[in-house]
Specification:
Number of domains: 3
Helix content: 25-40%
Largest sheet: 8 strands, mixed
CATH class of the largest domain: Alpha Beta
CATH topology of the largest domain: Rossmann fold
Distance between the termini: 59 Å
CATH architecture of the largest domain: 3-Layer(aba) Sandwich
Length: 415
């Protein structure tokens, strides 16, 4: 079969570039818009043909050499072959396209807030366990595959996490552990602590957990192994974090994201604010520290428990209402709140939650999203319900990958 020659013209959400050849659409991994590449077909994804660039015939001026030895095989990063400034431009185009498809216009002045140093930013990582040559190793899934690639280094993770992986593997091999599934590590950004959690295949076995932890600790004398919770500090605030509750993986950009969202919200001492999908209360407490009174809605019982603790630790005016956002909001009366901030999971809001926001008719909404398509879908629903998009920003929380975080401020009615 003759090699496939493709000319991608635009970025696609997911890190690939879109090419059209004889009326057929291709998603081309490891290619950049404007390039000419030789590519190998790799099946289909969502009904669209997928290929991987195997040779660059005409390179983009934005192409760089990927520093990671696993790039092109590991599924963790998709954009290391693009200069960082170009990664930011591609992400802006992806958000712009998602908004356009939904019938919205991304404000032209919306900034794309990148990182000064776009490496070693992840304070949390999940690593798959694999028996490799009879010994345990840790790694990541290969691109669009269930098979695991063992790794020795990962330049987007905190160095302490990379250095800890061999110790966890060595202890597992010495103790001949079985049925390991994955390892979740979270590094304290302001301390020596390393929070760990091992998952097993099938039912959790009775295993010598304490003995294993002691052995790993011996192999990591520079680090403090934590098996229950760790501390996260920012802006003179302090939070307890567990491995089974959500925390932003990019600590440095979390501060940029929160500052951007809080500036849009503009909550003052007389405001009562809803924090929807509140998690462990990092945003709730930050909003309350500006003087507002906050009601946090969260369905995960462990997150609610930690959120209440975090409110007490910071003497913050935050009350928790446990349950799903759409269910709890039905009990809220008109006029109780002036504003809401929401940061839902990737799937976005349930239609019933959007309907409740429209019913309440709050003055201001700040919507934080990690998925451009569901963000645009929910924003247009809110616009049809009487809101206007006033401001937007894109925050690059995940350099070298296709993931995008965007924030929008909506205000009720008006010209």
């Amino acid at each position: 079969m003759a090699p496939l020659i493709l000319r991608p013209t635009a970025p696609a959400h997911g890190g690939a570039a879109v090419a059209r050849e004889d009326g057929k659409v291709w998603l081309v991994n490891y290619a950049l818009p404007g390039e000419v590449v030789e590519a190998e077909p790799r099946g289909r994804q969502g009904g669209v043909a997928v290929a991987a660039a195997t040779r660059v015939i005409e390179a983009s001026p934005h192409r760089v050499a990927a520093p990671c030895p696993y790039f092109g095989e590991c599924g963790g990063c998709q954009l290391q072959h693009a200069s960082y400034s170009h990664q930011l431009e591609l992400k802006r185009q992806v958000v712009d396209e998602a908004w356009s498809r939904a019938g919205l216009r991304l404000p032209p002045e919306a900034p794309v807030l990148g990182m000064t140093d776009p490496w070693r930013y992840r304070i949390r990582g999940e690593f798959e366990a694999i028996l490799h040559g009879g010994t345990w190793r840790f790694g990541f899934h290969r691109l669009r595959s269930h098979s695991v690639l063992p790794i020795e280094t990962c330049a987007i993770h905190d160095l302490r996490i990379e250095q800890a992986l061999p110790a966890f593997a060595q202890a597992a091999n010495e103790m001949r552990l079985e049925d390991l599934q994955n390892l979740l590590l979270t590094a304290e950004p302001n301390g020596q602590g390393l929070l760990w959690r091992m998952r097993h295949r099938g039912r959790a076995p009775s295993w010598p957990r304490d003995e294993y932890a002691r052995r790993v600790a011996e192999l990591l004398p520079e680090q403090v192994l934590l098996d229950d919770a760790m501390t996260l500090n920012f802006w003179d605030l302090s939070f307890r974090v567990r491995s089974d509750t959500f925390v932003q993986t990019n600590y440095r950009q979390m501060l940029v994201l929160y500052r951007t969202a809080l500036d849009m919200l503009g909550a003052g001492p007389t405001d009562r604010v809803l924090d929807l999908y509140a998690g462990i209360g990092t945003i709730s407490v930050a909003v309350a520290s500006d003087g507002a009174s906050v009601t946090a809605i969260e369905e995960n019982p462990r997150a609610v428990q930690l959120g209440r603790l975090n409110a007490r630790i910071n003497s913050a005016r935050v009350d928790y209402l446990p349950g799903t956002v759409e269910t709890v909001m039905r009990r809220i009366r008109l006029g109780q709140y002036q504003a809401a901030i929401l940061d839902p999971p990737r799937a976005g809001c349930e239609p019933a939650a959007i309907a409740e926001l429209i019913r309440l008719g709050l003055d201001r909404l700040v919507y934080v999203s990690c998925e451009p398509s569901t963000h645009a879908r929910d924003l247009i629903a809110l616009v049809r319900g009487g809101y206007r998009v006033r401001r937007a920003a894109i925050v690059d929380m995940f350099p070298q990958t296709y993931h995008i975080e965007s924030v929008a401020l909506l205000e009720r009615g008006g010209a």
